[in-house]
Amino acid sequence: VDEGASFNKLADTKESVKSFIPFGGKVYCLGGGLYCCTNERAFEVEGYVPTVATSCSMGGKGTALEPPNMLNPKRRVLYNGDGINVTLSMPEKNIASVDRLYLNGKPLDPELYLVEGNSGIIEFDTPPEDGLNNIEIYYSIKNNDSAKEIISGFRYAVAFENRLFLYGNPEYPDRVYHSEMADGIPSCEYFSELGYHAFDKDITSLIPCYNRLLVFSEDSACFMFAELKTDSLGNTYTSFPVYELHSSKGNIALGLGCSVENTPITICRDGLNRWVSTAIADERSAKVFSERAFKFMAGIDKSYTNTLLFNRKASSELWLCTSNGTLIYNYALD
User: Fold this and answer.
1) Which of 75, 68, 53 is nearest to 148 (CA)?
2) How many other C-beta atoms lie within 10 A of the C-beta of residue 185?
3) What pairing do the DSSP bridges indicate for beta strands 74-79 and 51-56?
4) C-beta separation of 172 from 191 below 8 A
5) Confidence (pTM)
6) How far apart are the C-alpha atoms of 48 and 50, rounded to whole Å?
7) What's residue 7's pLDDT?
8) Mean pLDDT confidence for 153-180
9) What are the Cα distances from residue 303, in Å, to 221, 250, 306, 323?
10) Which of 117, 273, 277, 280, CA to CA, is 20 to 30 A from 242?
11) How far is 237 from 268, CA to CA, in rounded Å?
């Protein structure tokens, strides 16, 4: 650390931050019930405000667009004024607040409308004039903390295909969440309630490899990749189908595993393994290259809380650090 370097305290927490992820010119910090972002200064991620519906009638019927964001209670919705009705029905009830309301692109004085939050109704003094998406409403719902706590409860993350994939939530150890596109732009600040995979085993590690993301449990491995699909309305979206890779090997240490020259490395029950084929299910895809590491780790705490496995690219070295000491493998000499 350079002399004179400054440090920011993220927050008071009983657990340590586990992941630091560079994305979009910022660094995101995850773990210990925190999800923060730092760009010279650290602050809690507020999250993208999605447009949940567009072209809505004053009665509330419209076209669903973006799902709500788990990170915040905020929404945006667009209505077509008809010049007749003074009553507008919101997309949902139990509204905590209407934060901003624009008519024809200009802020509307809050004195000119009344919000009935419990029923999700807005009463205007005069009918909004006729127009297409000319009423723009930003609002917040009540009781969104539980959804946000799911995301901040994850401990580990990796970037893959312009998304952030999360794993290692003690309450949901079998789930992998991924971020959504925010108005078509890659974002780490937008997670939807349906944007996850639930596996039949607890997930211990995610490692990107070319156009695939390898997903490991203690004794199995699978992979996913980005696949463009079209729904019944003709809208395109990205899906992440899952395929089996190995039925008996995976990664036994939560949060550990890395990639060396685009070759995933994991800790298996027989030692350090290279994953030499990651495109099809094959029991030969994982190959032991260090039985010594297995023997070296035999006496350590099996929670692996004091264990690190990382690629020191500058010196072409793979480091395995444990309470027993450190093993260094120079892969440039192999």
Assistant:
1) 68
2) 10
3) parallel
4) no
5) 0.90
6) 6
7) 47
8) 96
9) 20, 16, 8, 12
10) 273
11) 36
